[in-house]
Amino acid sequence: MNLYLLILLPLLAALVAAMLPAERHRPLLLPAASLIHILLVLRELADPSPAGPHGMLYLDALGRLILLVVSLLYGAVSVYAIGYFRSHPTWSNRIFIVCLLVFLSAMSMAAAAQHLGLLWVAVELTTVVSAPMIYFNRNRFSIEATWKYLLLCSVGIALAMLGLLFVAYAGLQGGGEQGLRLGHLLEKAELLSKPWLRAGFVFLLVGFGTKMGLAPLHTWKPDAYGEAPGLVGGLLAGGLTSVAFLAVSRVVQIMTAAGEGVMARQFLMALGVLSLVFAALFVIRQRDIKRMLAYSSVEHMGILAIGLAVGKLAAYGAMFHVLNNALTKGALFMAAGNIHRYFGSKRMCETQGAIGVLPWSAGIFLAGFLAITGSPPFAPFMSEFAILRGIFAGGHFALGVAFIALLTVIFIGMSTSVLTVALGPTMEEEQPSEWGGESFLTVISPLLLLGAILALGLYLPEELRVMFQEAADLIEVTP
Amino acid sequence: MTNVTSSLLLAVILLNFFILGTSRLGACIRVVALQGALLSLLPLFLYGVNIHSLLLSAGALLLKGWIIPWLLFRAIRQVKIRREIEPRIGYITSLMLGALTTAIAFIFADRLPLQPEHMQSLFIPAALSTLAAGFLMLITRRKAITQVLGYLIFENGIFIFGVLLTEAMPLMVETGVLLDLLVAIFVMGIVMNHINREYSSINTEHLCLLKE
Q: Rounded to the nearest 10 degrees, how much is the dihedral formed by the CA atoms of B33, B36, B38, B44?
């Protein structure tokens, strides 16, 4: 019942948002729906509901983790959204807010889905409802980004559907049963016909990898993140990618259970390393702060893929890193959104010295940069360190060295841009900014997220540690 | 029954060629609709009349044969275009490539490890060649609308394969899949309209502002 509520409640809120006539009050629905969502998630974590009658919806450790990540990030973004719409009072926000609420519902459904078909439906739904959100600024740049995003991700997801059907066919070949329920597949994994399963895996990885933004399937990412409003960028980089990571993990789960884990891990490893390389190449001399964040997102998806591929301690690190990446990216995109709005530009040369005019946002941007590049004492340092230890413990020395080298390059590449934007000489204002400076509502959310990241870096509660470990153990089940 | 499904699938393959070779958009949309409608009959002929196949067929027919084409017709009326003038590769070449991929699909399907009952059927080659035709459309056409049509043909190819596996997909999930497709096409139609408003054309070549 509780799980159905998690999915239906945002839909109900979306319905109300669609019918509400007043533009001014509509944004208030976001934090209201989000607050109830967080409470429901917390209740679910404390007292898990049993699997439903058809076994379609159930939260295992991985699902609980992703749901928690999504819910927390969404909560922060929903408060920021009020401030955001106050600074754009004349813009129509009906479609945007309806899409935002459906987006939450779809992500919750993906986290709880125990049937691969249902998971697919949820992931595809996130694609179509995020397209109008990317187009919110309504100019030539955002329409181009939206079209590319929509077409690339739709085709990618269609390939994933083909992969799903191949897996179902593998079941038909192996034992006569063709169900796509996760529990069923894991149980009967050894019976699956290997050629069909392998082919299905490749298509699924390409499909969900496109959504996750693993190189070389990441090409939509800089455009979409660059042109979307900051809060949407944060939700995509923190929420949507986490859901895609969940989908990829499900596929790895099945492959491992079928005794094909080696192949799955090799493919993931290759994509992960490639993502780090692409990110390192493009983050250097990146002139656009939001595009820079997009490449940083490609980097972190690469780190997650590598963590998943190496397994054991690294898989634990990857689970921890999902949370860290989501919260830090949320803070960074919201701060970048504030800077973008004030200067009317997101190009580095036109946004210098933000600290003089937007002390909070620039400070958050700077601290967020330190956090996301893995500087202590922030939590991403802990998770990346766990992944690194896992890599060396697994005996992948070359990979470990390359990992450190690429992360260093990315740190240096990002630091030049971030330091110029945050600390450089303040730009002479020709006219006072149209949208004014920062307000409590647009600063408190990223600040809270950053505080959480700092706190998690200093002290990791036992409950969370257990959750990460359980989620990582799910990937490791071997026959 | 095998005869009927085989003729349906054969018609679907032939329609692929028609779509690859024509420049008139209206005809293209009609043919894609016809293809979708033919495909939606497959579950009925394969599994006989029961609730699951009946609902699946009805839903697919409604969506692929009627609502989606209607959305697309509305879209091209709004942007006032009738023809795809200059595809990246010519129509003759597209047709040749289509023929080539269809031949490869038949040869490849012969070598796949299939269930005995699927060995001689046209399902796998038809699915593969339709997927290939959709992909060809997606990468060789410049107009946003023809790219959407390519995506739809691609989806049709997946649908053919999916019909073999309807037991794997509960009705609820199938409904979700079809609804997702509908919403995707709806959103694509709106975005297309906005591209047209911005550039007075729906050539995707204009979309080249964003790069490194």
A: -140
